Every structure is written in C-alpha cells, then in structure tokens.
Sigma-70 family RNA polymerase sigma factor (Rubritalea tangerina), 183 residues
Amino acid sequence: MGISKSGNDDEIVTLLAGHQAAMLAFTHSLLPGDPGVKDVVQRANLVLWRKRSEYQSGTSFKSWAFRIIHWEVKAYLKESSRKSWLIVDEELTHMVVDSMLEQEEQQPLDALKASLESCLQKLNPKHQRLVTHRYFTRKTLQEFSEEVQQPVTSLKTTLGRIRIALRKCIDAQLNIQSIQKPS
C-alpha cells in the first residue's frame, strides 16, 4: 500500500473507523435480514481505501461512503441473485439511498440554522433589534437610523461587528457539536 496522492491516509483511517456503525446500519437498511451485510461493508471498506485519493477533505465522508456502499450492494445483489431466491426491488433501493443521502446533506444545514438562532439569542436586545430590522424587514437602514437617531455609518459598523461575533459564535458551536458527535 503506497501513500495516497492527497496524503490523507491518517484522515481516511480516522473517518473509516468513526463511520463503521453508520455504514453497517446503512447497509442493513439496504439488505434487511441478509447475512452478507458485513461482507458488503468489508468490500466497501476496501473500495474506500483503494479510492482514498479521490476523497476531498472537508466534504461529507458519510455521503461518499454511502454511495460506494450503494454500488457494493448492487454488485452483491447481482452476484447473489444467481445463487439465491432473494429479490430486492431496485427502485425501492434507489429511494432508500436517495432519502438517506438527502437527509445526510440536510443535517449540516439544520445544525447551522440552530447555531445561528442560538447565537442571535445571545445578542443584547439593541443588537437583536438592529439585526431583525436589517435582515427581516423591508425598511431601509436609513429609516432605522432615523428611528434610533444614530448615523447610518455607525449602524453599518455595528452590523459588521455583529456579523463577526455571530460567525465566531456559530463556529464555536459547530466545533463543539463536531467534537461531541463524529461527522
């Protein structure tokens, strides 16, 4: 086994180890009650390792792994159909795969939204009002400026600082979540 072109072997080993339970559960959902589930996961692990140079760090490893498992399940079913009476509806399999991949892609957005809402609650009421006005009403900043009797430039500066604070708060919350739960 040589070193991968991308030099991410340690990362791949960590991701593979951290996702075995999810990969096994996903394979069980595609092959319910089939005794070959562990074999399919093992074959998928080998494919993932062989294709490790194709993985782009920072992307969803789970989605990448699930796609490979999907192809391994198809190969397994084709191979076992010659030996067995088990019949699995291909359309149903595609629906399960699509649903699980869609859910996987939605989870980061849900976490981001929850973090944003939490961080907005931490702002002082004056800053909450400014953010609400700026992003959730159709009024101009000039109109708000007249309401609160502050210069527009001052409000723009404050908004910039608030955005930086929100970004830091969101990043901190997402980092805490990623430490508590493997990606």
